[in-house]
Amino acid sequence: MSPAPRTTSRAGAAGADWRDVPLAPVVLLFGPEDFIASRAVDDVRRKLRAQNPELELTTLDAGHYTAGNLGMVASPSLFSEPKLIEASGLAAMNDYFLQDALAYIKDPAPDVTLVLVHGGGVRGKKLLDALKALGVPRVECQPLKKDQDKAQFVSTEFQLARRRIDAQAVRALVAAVGASLSELAAACSQLIADTTGMVSTDDVDKYYGGRVEATAFRVADAALAGNAPVALSTLRHALATGVDPVPLVAALAMKVRTVAKVFGVRGGSAQLASTLGMAPWQVDAARRDAGHWSGPALVQAIKVLAEADAQVKGGAKDPVFAVERAVTVIATAARR
Length: 336
What we know:
Mean pLDDT: 86
CATH topology of the largest domain: Rossmann fold
Distance between the termini: 67 Å
Strand order of the largest sheet: 1-6-2-5-4-3
Radius of gyration: 25 Å
Oligomer: single chain
């Protein structure tokens, strides 16, 4: 039997990687992103079962906890198999759990790993402070809000699967399903399983091209590249299939803002990415788009988008006309 390594240094309190959770008698998963928390729990299970397939698993709900239960399930079993106790719902923990957990973490049971899952907030602050003081490994389970973080997530999923995906396909996938991290992970898994070779934008379009976000970005890509016929035909198809004008204008605005950020700026992609809060591939893509634009044309695009944004959000009787006008102005202002 291989007991879980015991944490003795306060350095363990620093944020641990949710893809590679360190084994310790007690581990804290903190934050509201359920997908990351579930991945972290799976990682702990996999590592412990690799050490001993007879691992005994127990789950506890900290919000509906009965006094004394933690000590009971952590006590040695008849054959002394190692144990994994997963305690979820710490954001709603009751006082019984708080008191028992505070007592337990001071002297964890041997051959037992306790994973504490806290969805965020200040409930149980006394326990959180005690865990930090003891140097318990803490895994941050925070939502990925920035597109560059989601893009990095996609790239890493493919790297771990030893597959390749081009930068534009990453962007298209984030645009199509990036609102939900679990959906984004599922999309990565599907593309990895169902395709061969380098995954391209065509592959992403085949599986996820019908999503509103992806349609909006195809319109924006064509308009910023100065391809008015493609931009307008894609726009009209989107509108005919029920896509709302609001996300269409939002996608255009995002593209124009990105081009404006890199317009006339010199420096390497990596350096600019750090300065501008973008991924290097986003800088490269924006620079390619910027090659179609002049300063006055960008100013014109920004103005027409500000007008279109107000119009599609209730400032005009015909929001469809507003977004068509914006796409036409932008696509004809850009140089082919």
